[in-house]
Amino acid sequence: MARTEFLIWILVITLCQLQDAQTQTLSSIGVNWGAQASQPMEPSVVVNMLKENGIKKVKLFDADSWTVSAFKGTDIELMVGIPNDQLKKLSKSKDDAEDWVKDNVTKHLKHGDVNIRYVSVGNEAFLKSYNGSYIHITFPAMQRIQSAIEKAGHADQIKVTTALNADVYESSSEKPSDGDFRKDIYSVMKQIVQFLDEKNSPFVVNIYPFLSLYQSRDFPKEFAFFDSTNSQIDDDGAHYSNMFDANLDTLVASLKKIGHPNVSIVIGEIGWPTDGDINANIQYAKKFYRGFFKKMATKKGSPRHPKSVTVYLFGLFDENLKSIAPGNFERHWGIFRYDGKAKFQVDFSGKGEDKYPISAKGVRYQENKWCVLKKDVKNITSLGGAMSYACAGGDCTSLGYGCTCNEVLDGSGNASYAFNQYFQINDQSVEACDFDGVADIVSKDPSKGTCRFPVAIYSSGNMLKVMHKVGGFFIIFSLIFTLFM
Ligand SMILES: *[C@@H]1O[C@H](CO)[C@@H](O)[C@H](O)[C@H]1NC(C)=O
Ligand SMILES: *[C@@H]1O[C@H](CO)[C@@H](O)[C@H](O)[C@H]1NC(C)=O
Ligand SMILES: *[C@@H]1O[C@H](CO)[C@@H](O)[C@H](O)[C@H]1NC(C)=O
Ligand SMILES: *[C@@H]1O[C@H](CO)[C@@H](O)[C@H](O)[C@H]1NC(C)=O
Ligand SMILES: *[C@@H]1O[C@H](CO)[C@@H](O)[C@H](O)[C@H]1NC(C)=O
């Protein structure tokens, strides 16, 4: 074979493989990309990774300009979010809502060619833990954003909705058909659902079988997964062998009862964490996703929602700054690690093949340095203070019972782990590895078995700090850049 022929042949094969990876991913699958991390991944690296994995839908929790711009020129559909702390302002002022749309939507459509399709106004705003703070402002904020989007001429392309937790509805029995919206928010839910129906926007709901298992010891474990055929609930001829279907049908019944059965449903979050709890591990996450994707591949929904639904997986990466008020698992929802490496085999095509998704490329790591307890420190009991300090500033959620570092480390290993987490979160600063003289920086990886001692990455966060320093220059540069585009 001639050399050029050979090269073309290689090229064709490569292109086919790329095509393959992309078309095989189920089109109904999207991902949530949250960035509550000490060193968030660089947007361009993430967007390339999404493309390589054939992911066509992404949900964000805010509308960070740099992140949204990274989707420029891709066909990836975006759902951007408005955080709860902005709802008050937006519910009150037409001008603020219009500014929000200009700044976070119009700009990207005009200059960026970004495929924004949804705005989620608020995130799980009616959670009981918020004590009702957002009950009266969420819907007015949705209306203001809707008006601003109409005024800007984007209403055909962009739908306004709000991502809700599944706790906005409940069933008076165990039967999904007895589902109805929560009493304390019934009237506002009626307004929201009517709005969604009128505007042809989806009802976005987050459903978490893991949390049901976490919250109730009696919850039948197999009901959280998808590979059992044992019916746990019989509801007038409908049989439920997994919690997801039962929960979805509780929503279907609730929508019917409130008079809007035709509102479409999108799953805003679903997934399984891999650390931070006895039931949060790779083995269960694999099992959950495998069963879920297999179900998705059949394109069948639930007994009372036979159409398949679009789902956004939660989530893309581990986020070490997430609040652990709900539980230590909160920082471990990623399908990928903090650095974009795939954690476990998951086949986005639903064929159940034992393959890893494609990890991020071009991630830049900080130096191969770790902060550990000095060898000559023997009295571990004296380290309590240093450890609590390290764990308050760093992330020690892998040390607890049933977690990846729990049985692997001894007392001094625990201290080293905590020190290193603090050190890495602080970008390996020498001052962050002191702890009254009991810690040392080493160049040999102290990881042990399942317990990994991470090395931080350089991130968009670090770069923002740099950009801040040269802020004036950067603004002028962007202005010139925008003018000439
Ligand atoms: C646009 O969104 C960003 C990120 O969520 C937010 O910080 C900013 O305030 C928004 N812009 C306006 C004008 O509201
Ligand atoms: C809700 O109320 C509880 C108890 O009164 C309080 O501890 C908590 O901080 C409140 N949460 C919010 C978000 O206001
Ligand atoms: C829902 O859609 C069906 C089929 O299009 C239609 O017949 C029905 O009237 C709709 N129901 C409501 C309440 O809009
Ligand atoms: C270890 O440290 C604790 C707390 O500082 C102290 O009470 C104890 O006497 C020390 N034990 C030894 C063997 O030095
Ligand atoms: C390490 O720390 C964890 C979490 O604080 C604790 O559960 C575990 O018992 C500790 N291990 C040892 C050997 O001290």
Automatic annotation (TrEMBL):
PANTHER family: GLUCAN ENDO-1,3-BETA-GLUCOSIDASE BG1-RELATED-RELATED. Belongs to the glycosyl hydrolase 17 family. This is glucan endo-1,3-beta-D-glucosidase. The lineage of its organism: Eukaryota, Viridiplantae, Streptophyta, Embryophyta, Tracheophyta. GO terms for molecular function: glucan endo-1,3-beta-D-glucosidase activity. Keywords: Disulfide bond, Glycosidase, Hydrolase, Signal. It catalyses: Hydrolysis of (1->3)-beta-D-glucosidic linkages in (1->3)-beta-D-glucans. SUPFAM superfamilies: (Trans)glycosidases (SSF51445). It is an enzyme of class 3 (hydrolase). Residues 369-453 form the X8 domain. It comes from the Eukaryota. Residues 1-23 form the signal peptide. It holds the Pfam family X8. It comes from Lupinus luteus. One of its GO terms (biological process) is carbohydrate metabolic process. Its EC number is 3.2.1.39.
